[in-house]
Amino acid sequence: MSRIRHLITLALAVIAAVLSAPTAAAAAADGEDVKYYVVQDKGDAEPEFLFEIAQRYLGDGERYTEIFELNEGRVQPDGTTVTTPEVLLPGWILLMPDDAEGDGIRTGPLLEVTPPAAEPGGAPGTGEQGATAPGATDAAAPDAGDDGAGPAGWLVPALITLGALLVTGGLAAGVVLLLRRRRAGRTAEPFDDSLLRTDTSSAWMTDRALRVLVAACERGGIEVPVLTAVFIEGPAMRLRLQNPHDSAPAPWIAGDGGTTWTAQIARLQAEPASDGQLGGFSRLVTLGVGESGRVMIDFARARGIISLDGSTRARHEALRRWLGELTSNPWSGSPRVVMVGNGLPQQETAEHVAGLEQVVPELVLGEGGVLVLSQAPVAAQQELLNSRFADPRFSWVVIVLGQVPVARWRFTARDDGWLRSDFLPDVRFDEQTAVRRVDQR
């Protein structure tokens, strides 16, 4: 159902963008009052980006595309133009959708900056660039038809029709899916996967497998092993152990000198399972799907900073999926999530603070959670974290967005959906690949 909701939301967003963009653009051209935002200079902090601005003033970071479409190609006060959603410079003036609200949004006539005049032959002129005053007319007006709609006047009704078809198709698909689920007796989803957006059945299968592992160890008088990673490979689940143990309780089979235990998934579904807490696996997270199957890793085993590098959009998407699973899966116990600094996704289940010093008093032994930093800690903060990680009772996971040379584990999220590290196979963290490959197994 989450994919159906996503389809309907996308269709509605297309219609809204089509209806609002021409209105706002026309108002700006006519010198009427419009809403706009001036990109701020944060000094040494991470620069502003469209996703953050959309989240702050539109309530949804995914609406950054609307802001970009309103401003693409617009000449800015420094003479440059907006050409890509990833680059914003301080002082740029962004035309905003009509429903933008919040401190920083301004309302009034928006001055249109004209580009430098071109000399004969196409070379830029040396004349000063000016600003068109509100209400001024442009001699080079766009061509218009007899009805005044312009050459692209067909675009609005065409896109509205397309959006209506998408909504209708999504609703029809939703009805069919709901009827199928009712016939199968599965009308309710296991949990809200709106943040994770991957195959939820895998989470419940993993939860049962972990409970079977605990029960098997209890029956065999074996200490439950510490896991660093879990691989779901076709019909089997393979566990990577932190400390080798060559004696595995049935149905698990030890291999690779006791560094891995493997069991058939079908066998795991029939074995007795523990109904106790799975605190030992509470930071186990799906990274994505590789060529051989799903890859999961236990962030608690890092015992140091975990860095997530890549473009802002890619690393935010990977982070949202990590946090979505940590706060939604059956075995994590909804850990506390604290985000420190600016430019981080506005996770509903997370606390947001300005600086690490606000959290330091709470980084105590015996308690834990997930700490997300928008930038690498300074030397004194790094020393403090190192002293905490040296004690095995310290159970906080620390994730830093960006390159951190001293990080224990390093991940790079790419715009093509690949997540890379130097100690695990490359995986895809994007929705389509994950769902498709799970279905193919």
UniProtKB/TrEMBL annotation:
<keyword id="KW-0812">Transmembrane</keyword>
<feature type="compositionally biased region" description="Low complexity">
    <location>
        <begin position="129"/>
        <end position="143"/>
    </location>
</feature>
<protein>
    <recommendedName>
        <fullName>LysM domain-containing protein</fullName>
    </recommendedName>
</protein>
<feature type="region of interest" description="Disordered">
    <location>
        <begin position="113"/>
        <end position="146"/>
    </location>
</feature>
<keyword id="KW-0472">Membrane</keyword>
<feature type="signal peptide">
    <location>
        <begin position="1"/>
        <end position="27"/>
    </location>
</feature>
<keyword id="KW-1133">Transmembrane helix</keyword>
<keyword id="KW-0732">Signal</keyword>
<feature type="transmembrane region" description="Helical">
    <location>
        <begin position="154"/>
        <end position="179"/>
    </location>
</feature>
